[in-house]
Automatic annotation (TrEMBL):
Native species: Nitratireductor mangrovi
Domain HTH arsR-type: 1-94
InterPro entries, alphabetized: ArsR-like_HTH, HTH_ArsR_DNA-bd_dom, WH-like_DNA-bd_sf, WH_DNA-bd_sf
PROSITE patterns on file: HTH_ARSR_2
Record-linked CDD domains: HTH_ARSR (cd00090)
Top-rank taxon, per record: Bacteria
PANTHER family, sorted: SLL0088 PROTEIN, TRANSCRIPTIONAL REGULATORY PROTEIN
Protein name (record): Helix-turn-helix transcriptional regulator
Pfam families per record: HTH_20
Entries under SMART domains matching the protein: HTH_ARSR
Molecular function terms from GO: DNA-binding transcription factor activity
Amino acid sequence: MVEQSERLDAIFHALADGTRRGMLAQLAIGEHSVGDLAAPHTMSFAGASKHVKVLERAGLVRREVRGRTHWCRLEAARLAEAQAWLKHYERFWTERLDTLAALLEGKDEISTNGDTT
């Protein structure tokens, strides 16, 4: 359980930064070099590489060096772990909002019938 918690911590830490989320969006389209990932964020190769390292530690990206180019690929399976965690809270809020909707519908029914009790 601790191992899973550490993985989730790493995933959410990686996702907490807008630059890294932008890089993941680029990688969802296909493989990109670290230079490609740096360009839209107007940052250096070294700066982009630091963000890629965080994504690698979280297991969200795999980097492969071919020649002098560092190619990155999205590892989407790790995102499923974060989604599963979030789904728990989605169910929590859906149940409460359904209960609230049912209560409000019941109140509307009483109001339209003229019953004020």
